[in-house]
Amino acid sequence: MTAVPALDRGRPRSHAKRRGSRRTAKHPVAYLILSILALYAIGPMVVFVLASLKTPSEISESPLGLPGEFRWDNFATAWVEANMGAGLMNSVVIAVSTAVGVCVIAGCAAYALTRLDLPKPGVFILYLLVASSLPIQLFLVPLLSLWTKIGLYDSRFGLIVIYWAIYSPFATLLIRSFLIAVPKEYEAAARIDGAGEIRVFTRIVFPLVWPGILTAGLVAGLQAYNEFLLAVTFIQDSENLPASISLYSFQQGFSPNWALVSAAGLIMVLPVLALFIALQRRFVEGYTSSGMSG
């Protein structure tokens, strides 16, 4: 027997049916709005993909139309002329190194903030909030001078160190929100059994907060992969240029071929898109469960 909701028990059954029909009637409007938003988001990407398969003349004559012939050789040409192979390799090295370093730095800092008896921990939280909100442009000139003096200018490691510094504060706050939810009794029981701090963190705490650490690493890695200002400022050697700078240099040619530029841009986007699609569930779950999404 179907249970009648408490709010509808005192109402005629016909009224409940009308209510259900009104709710159903709203669905097409919601679907229409969502379809428009999806078209707004996906539409530029579709035009971008079509442009990468056209000739320059077809882009000029019909920017939104289909190509007369799908020119897949544009990707091979763009790969060679834009030096995207070396650019992608440099970007992967920079992004992975940034993600790993941020996870280690932020994980240790968050563990210290939540588990150690620090004097005035609110001061450290305020420092992290301020550090994560300040624009890097404020420190660009003195940082450039310092990096030149100590020999870190024009090197991938020097750029990675800067990324560690600017992405670790937010990652620390993110991982800290996970650690707060972990009961301290688990760690106390491990210490009674003779486990040290490192073993407690790696064997007890890390398995419980790894979604937050993964999310922090993904955010830092994607930011490092797409970052432009610091990369173009601190990297000059063509062999160390990341993909974003290789694409920019290719685009700034004397007579840019927009079909090849679109193909090179798509080559740069595809690795990040594939990674996000593969890990989107972990990313969204980690970000929303941290309590920092709103």
UniProtKB/TrEMBL annotation:
One of its GO terms (cellular component) is plasma membrane. The keyword Transcription does not apply. Residues 88-279 form the ABC transmembrane type-1 domain. Pfam families: BPD_transp_1. Keywords: Cell membrane, Membrane, Transmembrane, Transmembrane helix, Transport. The chain crosses the membrane at residues 29-53, 92-113, 125-145, 157-179, 200-225, 258-279. Gene3D superfamilies: MetI-like. One of its GO terms (biological process) is transmembrane transport. It is a multi-pass membrane protein. It comes from the Bacteria. Residues 1-22 are annotated as: Disordered. Its main location: membrane. It is found in: Cell membrane. Residues 12-22 have a biased composition (Basic residues). Belongs to the binding-protein-dependent transport system permease family. This is Sugar ABC transporter permease. It comes from Sinosporangium siamense. The lineage of its organism: Bacteria, Bacillati, Actinomycetota, Actinomycetes, Streptosporangiales.
